Amino acid sequence: MPSTNLLKKKRIVVLGSRSVGKSSLILQYLENQFVENYYPTIEGSFQRSINYNGTEYDCEIIDTAGHDEFSLVNANHTIGTHGYIIIYSITSRNSLEMVKILYERILDFCGVQYVPCVIVGSKSDLQQHRQIDPSEAQEFAKLNNTAWIETSAKKNINVAQVFELCLSEIEKRSTQNAAYKPPPPEPTKNTCVIM
Ligand SMILES: Nc1nc2c(ncn2[C@@H]2O[C@H](COP(=O)(O)OP(=O)(O)OP(=O)(O)O)[C@@H](O)[C@H]2O)c(=O)[nH]1
């Protein structure tokens, strides 16, 4: 039987195109800081205790290098991962297309039809450069049973909510699993086999 502590350990992977603001979101969340300059990420892992719904979760947050159409989702992204945050910038149509590709690649790699996931529209402070209508991203999220939210790391809008939503999606999934009862085995038929 797994201990309660183990059950509260959650691994969250943050994915998305280059420069959509993955590191900025994490930095704002963990350290209440925002950096205007762009420094490409290789990969980073951060520990953070998150209180959600009265429960303390011991979270590992993985910041990944920006993805393009040639990047593959690999075992490092998926093995042991409980939830995904996939980010596009509201100022970039290409980055929303990459969200769709990444989500499909995760499902393919894991061989499942659903994973706990939050789709995040970043840089919501840049309204004058908006290319993605909220309804478009919301529709994709709804179709795929994921959560969706817009954020600004710069203005610290909806930053903590992204991580809480991710835990909520993870919990939803584990409740569904707990409620799941496998179908009873098929009754054996009294058939006669002629050899
Ligand atoms: N206006 C605005 N700029 C942002 C916001 N978030 C990030 N940026 C800027 O966007 C650029 C890229 O941000 P990063 O956080 O480095 O993006 P990333 O997705 O981690 O990039 P990679 O490391 O290439 O994957 C930086 O210049 C940030 O200052 C935001 O909410 N608003």
Automatic annotation (TrEMBL):
Where in the cell does this protein reside? Cell membrane
Q: Which UniProt keywords apply?
A: GTP-binding, Hydrolase, Lipoprotein, Magnesium, Membrane, Metal-binding, Methylation, Nucleotide-binding, Prenylation
Q: Gene3D superfamilies per the record?
A: P-loop containing nucleotide triphosphate hydrolases
Does the keyword section mention Secreted? no
- Is Magnesium one of the keywords? yes
GO CC terms on record?
Answer: plasma membrane
Q: Which GO terms describe its molecular function?
A: GTP binding; GTPase activity; metal ion binding
Where mainly located?
A: membrane
Segments of this protein annotated with the region Disordered? 176-195
Its GO biological process terms? signal transduction
* SMART domains referenced in this protein's UniProt entry, alphabetically: RAB, RAS, RHO
List the SUPFAM superfamilies hit by this protein, alphabetically: P-loop containing nucleoside triphosphate hydrolases
InterPro entries tied to this protein: P-loop_NTPase, Small_GTP-bd, Small_GTPase, Small_GTPase_Ras-type
PROSITE patterns per record: RAB (PS51419), RAS (PS51421), RHO (PS51420)
The record's section on NCBIfam families has: small_GTP
- Can you name this protein? Rheb
